[in-house]
Amino acid sequence: MGLLDLFIASSIPVLKVLLITGLGTFLALDRVDILREDARKHVNNVVFYVFNPALVASKLAETVTDDSIVKLWFMPLNILITFIIGSILGWILVQLTRPPPHLRGLIVGCCAAGNLGNMFLIMIPAVCKEKGSPFGAPDVCQSYGLGYVSLSMAIGAIYLWSYVYNIVRASAAGNTEESTKHYIGKSSRESSAAELGSCIEPLLPSKEPLASEHRVDQCALPGTTQVEMEDSGNKQLLRKLLGNINWKTIFAPSTIGAIVGFTIGLIPYIRKIMIGGDAPLHVIHDTASLLGEGAIPTLTLIVGGNLLRGIQGSGMRKSIIFGIIFARYIALPLIGIFIVKGALRLGFIPADPLYQFVLLLQFAVPPAMNIGVITQLFGAGESECSVIMLWAYALASISLTLWSTLFMWLVA
Fold first, then answer.
1. Per-domain residue ranges of the chain
2. Spatial CA neighbour of 262 closest among 349, 362, 157, 121
3. How many CB atoms lie under 10 A from the CB of residue 255?
4. Which of 4, 10, 57, 156 is the most exposed place for a label (fewest CB within 10 A)?
5. 114: which strand partners?
6. Which compartment or compartments is the protein found in (predicted)?
7. CATH top-level class for 3-175+251-411?
């Protein structure tokens, strides 16, 4: 099988994504005014609360079984590795470029989270249908491929909405706090100092040798020992740390959809009554599948509409864009080749070319489109995210095609 055939087979899916993205940008133009900013925000909410969880739940329920989970155990670990390495690269980029506080979470998130869902759902079936594909019969390839993609999409959604969502939220909240602190006047600080004066050590040394210890005792509760004070402080710190975790965001709608999908797919009784044409409750699964099918084109159109801001410009520094492109399209794919090939040699993954291709591709995809949804939910870094997505998905047509060709050659 020639490299030209592999190149054509890998370029078709990327072109499909670019065409839909271009349509979204066209619909967002002022003279067309169909996918305007407020419309994109409302549709974002529909994708977040309805389409994405329905897509994840329906695909997992249909394709994940006990046998497939045992076979695919390495995939969640592989995705976790992409997030860890991407986060390290993003942290290095933040240290080098020193961006504004509200962009730090966005930069780390773009380096860590790849498009592990809808990009794969478009690419894998298209690759299977191409004549030059090295993955065998199209129907068999597509059947197994959807199982791999469903698990990739579910695990990616769990990591995205439990990790990237919270670092972007923390970054946006940190920027708000810094802005508030900037406007606190000197009088408020003096007022705070006065309130704490009774428990503050005097500037001049006291004539009494044990005055400092006496003041500490005055600030503590009567009858409290030093060990009890330390335990109380540790409990307060633990309570504060746990209280700062937004548990609702960890169980985002897509995460709940993944839990539902795993439950249906892995419990034989529930699977029997919901999956298949003869199942008594198959209408529930069919409805979820129908809703989920709207997630991919809708989300891609929204990304295209958001790219309009990137075309118009937002003052985003070129060094940040270049760093994200380098991390996602050069560093991560090269590291991914060593990881997947090492796992194959150690016997962690089966000698399945399509499975290996999906694992390799998880290191080379552009940033997750849902990062744009997250920035719009918090209203922080929307225009900067649009610029990043513009360049990332414009260059994806070249990078992803070249890496896909190399990956097919490696596994064929």
1. 3-175+251-411
2. 157
3. 21
4. 4
5. 367
6. Endoplasmic reticulum membrane
7. mainly alpha
